[in-house]
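[agent] plan:
  1. take the single chain provided in the ticket
  2. run structure prediction with default settings
  3. attach structure tokens to the ticket
  4. add a short note for the reviewer (M.T.)
[agent] executing step 1
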Amino acid sequence: MVLDLTAGAMTIMRDGTTNKVSAAQLNDYCGNPKRFVGVLDASDRAALNGICKDWIKLQGHASAMHVQTKREPPHSPKTAHDYYDELYKAGGLDNFADEYACFRDDDVPTFFLIGKSEDMREYLAASGGLSKLPPEARAYLDKARLFFVSYNQGISNGTEYFSLNDSGDSYIEKLEMPPDQYSPKSFRLTVRLRVNWQTLRYKHDIEKTGVPGFLYEETGRCEVVKPGVQQHGHKE
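[agent] step 2 finished; step 3 output follows
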């Protein structure tokens, strides 16, 4: 007797005669062997009884593999919104900047949070927390600043502080960069964020002093962070 798995059948060879038993017939036999008394001789029934247990296991594995294939499609890469939702539900967003969440127009899995200092001041004044702050902290909130926290695949890059520029059309952060392998002299960068507060569209770019054009730029759209879950992820 030969079990031919590729053909989904079993071959019975006896006295030079070959008979094929299909998978359906094998299932029928293994389900109720007594029905085949008088149909198959004792030696064939004994051989079939010997493989029925393994055959049923094999069928079970095949069925499980089929179900697993149907229920577990290949995982798609996480998007910026996926990482944001994960942090939001866990309450892990930075609670100093959790006013707006901003997402790029492309599919890079990064996002950032922004919060206006004047809105933070109003909230603290209404809740009674403003008077508890030290004078230097209150003075900081009096200035038009923006709390900015970027996340890469759900990991915070820390808090940055942007100031409203003189023309009032964008928030900027000026950085003094030390010499490195690419630049033997120190240089300055200006990081700029423009937000249309009516549509919540934004443009984020970086300029190097003395170099025309942008070293980096991106566009996207912000959305209001829902107040349903208390956030507590602020870290200096």
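[agent] step 4 note for reviewer: The longest helix spans residues 42-71.
[agent] ticket updated
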